[in-house]
Amino acid sequence: MKTLLCLVSVVALGLAGCAAPTRYVDPDNDQGAVSMQLDYRDFAKASDEAVASMLASGAVDNPAGGRYVLVVSRIVNDTMQRLDIDQLVKKIRVQLLRSGRVVTTTAVGIDGPEDEMNQLTRTLRDSEEFDQRGVEKKGTLQAPDLSLSGKILQRNRRVADEQQVEYYMQLTLTDLSSGLALWENETQVIKRGSDASVAW
């Protein structure tokens, strides 16, 4: 029994010694293997293209001056993967904020406020424990002007003896006062590879 345990330990150590060493990856210069699934490079490509298109379109140029208030609505994941949609949305929001043309509200959202402190701090009104001069007054939250919604689609196809996985990242910017779409965009990410590659 001891001999068997020693043998298993030696094999395990030998396999661990053969594993590739852990290393840092420069996201801006990653020449590593491409998977059939969506990865951080795909989210970066989609957000860069979407924001560049939105800014170039003039849809977020406020004719009254100042910045529009944007709320993120629902972005549907219609892929076979479990995606963190917030990863894509956050990249878009950061770039829009840096543009100086849009601010994002965290006080409202499809599933409730993104930051619950917007409402919780207002429950401090009339509390004897808090200096009321520092408590947020009524009517100070800003309603959104624009809403960003969208969908991420996946379509799998056969191309010769390979599989092709197509991702479509569709976004719509809506003027909430009129309900009209001011801007729409679709970014395509298309990957082709072996059937052995997993796309979900």
UniProtKB/TrEMBL annotation:
It comes from the Bacteria. Keywords: Signal. Coiled coil: none annotated. Residues 1-19 form the signal peptide. This is Penicillin-binding protein activator LpoB. It comes from Chromohalobacter moromii. The gene is lpoB.
